[in-house]
Amino acid sequence: MKTASKTTAKxxxxxxxxxxxxxLPKRATTPNAGPKPKPNxxxxxxxYFITFEGGEGAGKTTQIARxxxxxxxxxxxxxxxxxxxxxxxxxRIRSLILDPKMEGLVPLAELFLYEASRAQxxxxxxxxALEAGHVVICDRYTDSSVVYQGVARGLDGAMxxxxxxxxxxxxxxxxxxxxxxxxxxxxARVGNRGILDRMEKEALSFHQAVRQGFLALSRLxxxxxxxxxxxxxxxxxxxxxxxxxxxxxx
Length: 250
Description:
Blueprint: H1 4-18, E1 48-54, H2 60-72, E2 78-82, H3 88-98, H4 107-131, E3 135-139, H5 142-152, H6 157-168, E4 175-180, H7 183-191, H8 204-220, E5 225-229, H9 234-244
Parallel strand pairs: 1-3, 1-4, 2-3, 4-5
Helix pairs in contact: 2-9, 3-4, 4-6, 5-6, 5-8
């Protein structure tokens, strides 16, 4: 039973909270997703973490830039980054992963390279930015490994998720925007850019598996995912994204 003093204190606390600006949503966590961070691992709580996912040519780069501008117009500091890569060391690993000459790279080695790049990226860029209270917008994150290496490459999904947890210290996005597009359209867009990287050169069946993998994942994690129809105009896509992240603006 609550005491009178506790009730009074609670009312005072609520009154004080109403007078303040609306805080950012609490960081998402997944129960039993993996080992808890060690005591010396600082938890990133004060910032806001958004990831963009989707197949090749879905328009992530364009929409990330527009969303970053929208956040900056509210006075927020925004860090835009990407995977693989995002920091000096991680970018060197990226060059190996995407090199078209690395045709003999086996799926497990590919996964380990992604996780190595990710661990460095989180340590160098993402976690410090979140701890500083910034908005972080990342082009791909752990979900890409779940889908590309787990689904499309056929690796064990549980293993991929465990490695994701190890690489990130279980740091998860507050919101994931999935730009969904028919891979035939996306690959046609990519083809107009010129030289394709190792992942873009995969067969259509591979990219179709990627799309279905992302959609399946979005159904499993409905609270975190928002599926955006990327076949629409750029302005229409941007409007969908702004609606999805409306709760993040303060």
